[in-house]
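**Sequence, structure tokens**
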Amino acid sequence: MASALACPPRWSTRPARSARRNIFPGWAGLTPTHELGARLGVPVCVENDANLGALSESLWGAGRGHQAVVYVKLGTGIGAGIVFDGQLFRGVTGTAGEIGHLSLDTNGDICRCGNRGCLELVASGAALVTALHPTRPDVTDLTDLVRLAIDDDAACRRLLADAGGHVGVALGGIVNLINPDRVLIGGELGRAGALLLDPLTASLQRSAVPAAVAALSVGPGILGERAEVLGALALVLREPERLVSPETPDIQAAG
């Protein structure tokens, strides 16, 4: 079995750590880099999807030319990637950008992460579809929800506006903390355009300090479904050392 792949010395990603049971129960006890590397017979890098979206958008997309970019992927769950001067910031254990698990209500419902009142509970795609179920049980996925909102369905539009407001509050805290010059919204909910972005931006502007807001622009990602794939390509091009480790035994002998 292959050992953990080398990581860039700038930030520690801990890519070889086992998955947490409460977040990825199907991967509990497994180390993705080891497991996939052994099965495929090639060196493997594992990276957070929001990080990949952030990297591609900052290099080739709507974040190009900006110094500090926060990319928020709004899909079934919520995650963010942070890029400073073209380099991903992952934090000490690789969990930087877990905006979906910022608590908005310390007395709120219990989240799967164990915290209370997390952003994911009120603004993730899964939460929105669940909230819509009593009145629109026919809506079973985000594609339908966004389509109906664009077609002027009042309930779907309200859900997106509320979700945008919640995300904006969380982003206000991020903006106050790291002072980025660009915030980008991607993922399936990002396809809703102004229906989501307008209330999100208004909420962010109310939540962040004026000086930080004045230096910030908010907009949609432009790479769409290609963002994460292009991010994976960018990762290999910019961090090739992750595919080579002097401590890694011959991968061909791993079987």
Notes: Residues 13 and 94 are 4 Å apart (CA to CA). The chain has nine helices and five strands. The radius of gyration is 19 Å.
